[in-house]
Specification:
3 helices, 7 strands, about 180 residues, single chain, alpha+beta
Length: about 180
């Protein structure tokens, strides 16, 4: 069972991690909104990563479609002209955005749980999100992520627990991170 304060903590960590992961400059505005369900998520693909411990597995997903606005934003993150990037380059950038997102979540959770491991990014088709209920997770939450009022991603968190999970987060102390390289 995952306590309500642990669910609130997961949501707080995910929101902050998303805000750090999708920026191309410190001036970017990022709005993250929790959603009731996944019905709004229509993007074509998603990048999936996991954070695992002895007590839980947190599956993170970022959904995306490589439309013109998303390509431009990903190129800005990569610091390259959009015209010079091919699809493989965009997939590499979205994988790195997923790594930053999941790495920030991993770092925040490590203050409460020792022995965390993180997977590498996997790009999957969007339809995979429809099967999250098959995982018998104790907590699933979806988010809309809007960057500069022009680029929209969606993200999801699915937590499968192997024991009771309870932790408390001080939400008044927010560390600002902009995706620095982290050595593990």
């Amino acid at each position: 069972m995952i306590s309500q304060q642990a669910k609130d903590g997961f949501e707080f960590f995910v929101t902050n991690a998303l805000k750090a992961a999708v920026v191309s400059s410190p001036d970017d505005r990022v709005d993250v909104t929790a959603l009731e369900d996944s019905s709004e998520i229509k993007e074509e693909r998603m990048v999936l990563l996991t954070v695992s411990s002895y007590l839980f597995r947190a599956i993170t997903m970022m959904s995306f479609t490589l439309d013109a606005a998303t390509r431009h934003h990903l190129a800005a993150i990569h610091r390259a002209p959009a015209e010079s990037m091919g699809e493989a380059d965009y997939l590499d950038v979205i994988g790195e955005v997923g790594n930053i997102f999941c790495g920030a979540l991993n770092r925040d959770l490590s203050h409460h749980f020792p022995y965390l491991g993180m997977s590498t990014p996997n790009v999957l088709e969007r339809e995979c999100i429809d099967y999250l209920d098959e995982l018998d997770a104790s907590y699933i939450r979806h988010f809309r992520v809007v960057v500069n009022d022009g680029v929209t991603f969606h993200a999801s968190l699915c937590v499968c627990d192997f024991a009771d999970i309870d932790f408390q987060v001080d939400t008044s102390a927010v560390e600002e991170s902009h995706g620095e390289l982290e050595l593990f």
